[in-house]
Amino acid sequence: MVNLVLVGAPGAGKGTQAMKISQKYAIPHISTGDILRDNLERGTQLGLQAKEFMDRGELVPDIVLIGIIKDRLSEPDTATGFLLDGYPRTFPQAEALDDILGQITKELDVVIDIEVPDEVLVKRLAGRRMCRCGASYHVLFNPPEVDGKCDHCDGELYQRDDDTEEAVKTRLVAYYAQTHPLIDYYSTKGLLRTVNGTGSIDDIFREICAAIDRIL
Ligand code: AP5
Ligand code: MG
Ligand code: ZN
Predict the structure, then answer these.
(1) What pTM was estimated for this model as a whole?
(2) Quick check: CB of 144 below 6 Å from ligand 1?
(3) Whose CA is nearest to atom 17 of ligand 1?
(4) In 3D, which of 191, 198, 197, 186 has the Cα closest to residue 214?
(5) Phi, psi of 98 (to 5 degrees)
(6) Which of 57, 88, 173, 210 could form an S-S bond across to 93 if both were Cys, CB 3.0 to 4.6 Å?
(7) Inside any domain, residue 178
(8) 15 CA distance to ligand 2 centroid (A)?
(9) Residue 192 alpha carbon to ligand 3 centre in Å
C-alpha cells in the first residue's frame, strides 16, 4: 500500500511511468489531465469549463481541480493506495490535498520528481501520440507495435490539442512558475525523491520502484 504523487514538467514521462507503477503496485492511476480530457470528450459542464485553459496550455482554476481530486480520493479503490499524476500543480492544490487526506485519515508516503531538461521535453511532446486509455507513445522514442494503434487496448492514437509548439511553451512557463516551487514544499516535508528522467523508460521505472520499495 502506497500513497504517492508524481511530479515533473510536461513531457517528463509521468503518464508513461504511472501506468507501469499502477500495474505493479495495484493502485489506481489518478491523472487529472486524463479526467479533464475525458470530460471534454463527453462534453460535460466540467469539460466545457476546462477547454479554453487546456487548449492554451494554462492551468485550469484550482477550485475545479480541488473538487475533482476530493471526489476521486473518496472512491473506495483508493483504500489500498493511489498514484496522483498531474496533481497538485499549485500551492493551494497542495494545501487542499493535505486537508483532504487529513479528513480521510490518510497521508502521502512519497513524492517522486522526474527531472528532464527542456530541450528533451519539447522533442518528446512534439512526437507524442496518445490513447484514450491513458497510454502514451512516441513516433520515434516509444512507437506502438502497430502504427496508430494502442498496444494495450487497440484504440486509435491521436495527437493532443495542447501539444502544439505554442501551447507547449505556455505549459512550460506555467510549470516553472506554479508547479516547480512544490518541489521545495515536499522536500521540506521529507517526502521528495528525485529521479533522472532522461534514461530509458525501463531504467527510470526501476529507479522509481527502488524509491518506492525503500519506504514500503
Ligand atoms: P496533463 O495531462 O497532466 O499534462 P502535462 O503535465 O503537461 O504532462 P504530459 O501529460 O504532457 O506529460 P507526461 O509527463 O505525462 O509525459 P508522457 O508520459 O505522456 O495536463 C494537461 C492540462 O490539463 C494542463 O495543461 C492543464 O490545463 C490541465 N490540468 C491538468 N491537471 C491540472 C491541475 N492539477 N491543475 C490545473 N490544471 C490542470 O510522455 C511524453 C512523451 O515522451 C511521450 O511521447 C512518451 O512516449 C515519451 N517518453 C516518456 N518517457 C520517455 C523516455 N524515458 N525516453 C523517451 N521518451 C519518453
Ligand atoms: Mg500525462
Ligand atoms: Zn489504449
Answers:
(1) 0.97
(2) no
(3) 13
(4) 191
(5) -55, -45
(6) 88
(7) no
(8) 4
(9) 30
